[in-house]
Amino acid sequence: MRAPAPTPPTSRSGGTAGALTGFRSTVRYDLPASLVVFLVAVPLSLGIAVASDAPLTAGLIAAAVGGIVAGALGGSPLQVSGPAAGLTVIVADLVNRFGWGVTCAITVAAGLLQILFGCTRVGRAALAISPAVVHGMLAGIGVTIVLGQLHVVLGGEQQDDALANVLALPGQVLSAHGPATMLGLAVIAVLLAWPRLPDAVPGWVRGIPAPLLAVVALTVVAALSALPVDRVEVGGSVLDAIALPVLPTSDLGGVVVGVFTVAIIASIESLLSAVAVERMRPGTSTNLDRELVGQGAGNTLSGLLGGLPITGVIVRSSTNAAAGARTRASAILHGVWIVVFSIALLGLVQQIPMAVLAGLLVHIGAKLVNVGHMRELHRHGEFPVYVVTILGVVFVDLLTGVLVGLGLALLMVLRRVVWASIEVQAPRADETGPWRKGETWHVVVEGALCFLSVPRLSRRLARIPEGADVVVDLVTDYLDHAAFDHLSEWEARHRLAGGTVRVDEVGTMGLVARRESTAGGPGDRRPGPVPRFLAPWSVWQSEHDAADGAGRGHGRPDDADPVLTGLREYHRRAAGLVAPYLSDLTDGQAPHAWFLTCSDSRVVPNVITSSGPGDLFTVRNVGNLAPLGTAGDDSVGATVEYALDVLHVPTLVVCGHSGCGAMQAVVRESGGDGPLGRWLSGAAESRSRWTARHPVGEHAAAAGASDVDQLAMVNVAVQLDRLARHPGVAKAVEEGRVRLVGLFLDIASARMSVLDGDRFVPASTDRIGAGASATKPEPATTAFAAGSAGLT
Which pTM value belongs to this model? Predict the structure, then answer.
């Protein structure tokens, strides 16, 4: 038997070098970052334990387990986990109802449920929760913390619920006194002022974590001044506080609800924090399902050891990323430092005044109410969900607030889906004075028009007088049977009364479309939603005729002119949308490409390139020819020179198309002796190169293409050759300032192809070679023009 080959020395040395590099990176980046996060985590963990009515040691246990276990097993390398302000209200309620031992058991069960979530790959599903509900929940928790801890800051005691805290707060403010109040307000002042220090302050000073500075400085002041204030009572060492959870013996339904509440809220907060950290450090890969497993393992162990529930915490995670952490080693080391601190230096914790931690909690709670989130939600129309969620969390309980917020979010989505905006525009804005014959009323319907909107639609239409000319703008993407019947019946009644109705379908599913589809007419041929700006006049302007029933008219002689009808449509719907872009281009243009294409009306450059105002410097002529240097015709040459010398465009494009009438005339040599014939003589070079290897059978790569389309493709390559020979273009190409691109539009399929080397390839492919944007295209285009062109 042959012995296994030994590992090459290079592999061992490479592995050693890699390990050494990783160790150096950890020492250089992760170790300092872990110390910064540790200094931030200790006071926050103690404060959250106080707000949760839990033992202070439970906050330190959770912080250590969150750092070590969740940091090692989680799917977000830079996320730091620990006790979070978002769970304080839930935990406090569980402690008051079931006691601390049962709360630890709930934490264990919630952790196991999170592991199940991760194993079943539901990590992304948690992100389907409306951000308005999540932000509202956190803001509600923040308001609850502030209302309770303000009483402690002012020298009193917090009440049993939020409403009682609100009612008692004025009296507490009037009676505020004593050193506790000064300490609490001083902490808040330090936390607010420290991030705003001027740049003149040395960087190492500004880099001191504000929570650590506030807690340490005010604790020292209280100790040196021997202030008579309540201080933290740890009640033994962390090791003594470790105890197994207690199984519940009653109210099992409440326990189950608590388990699901902790698991879901902790999972959502952790996933949102992980996504936020990933955005802070681009290139960081996050596995959300693995993150759930890591969080679940952390909660399971934290509950078994007597710790608080943990989540990914955005404050610590953002601090970790900002401090320069590179790997998960930073989060793990921060947990190790907490263990060392909890065992060796716990006596120092007992010197911290309770008012100092209360001031820290007030600041934490206030930061959970994010004004930036409010503005964003207001822009998206979701602010009511945010407000309702806050009120539910603050004045009822967290679960009720979240459920009410989710319910309102679903109702608002349902309303957007099935609710239509219906507006009747009278000939005069104030609808005053007698209505005169010939004046047109406009009815604008936007959204999904279904049976729920029929009563409002009926009331709006009843305002239109009999005999009036009416234009109904249906900007709809859904029209159900009830709305279709009502509109059709009203239209028929209005016509019988002597009025006219024109249905203008701007959306994808309107009255005429439904009528034609029902009758098996043209509506059946529609492939799907098509915006009006992509549809030709013959489609949407003919719908006006179908809706009128009696052809165009309405007393306006220009109704029969599609150009004027199109202009009116532009001013009604598109001018306002395009105006901001054109306004930005008032002082000049900077197009991205010079675009030469055929005059054929079926070729629309801005449609096939998905471009807008200011993108293309377009040149059109019969056959997309570039007769550069031809005596008596400098039209194309002038545009090329202007594009290069004045506009400095980086790309020159020649675009041909199938079924080209100019190429048909060239194939048949039927241009005549007039202007058209003289112009098409500019395609003689294309014809000669194409006929050099005729018949088609010799064009193996062009199988399936007609003679006209073969010539059109060869013509694109020839015109690119002509451009490349132009002195100005040749110099720009040589200097790398310009590239030449050849395109071909197959009208029957609406598909684009790009000249890649010596053949056209689909523009949709991701594997287009350098020939598609060559800076020196002569060899490729010459080979193409010689006869090896084709569509693939």
Answer: 0.58
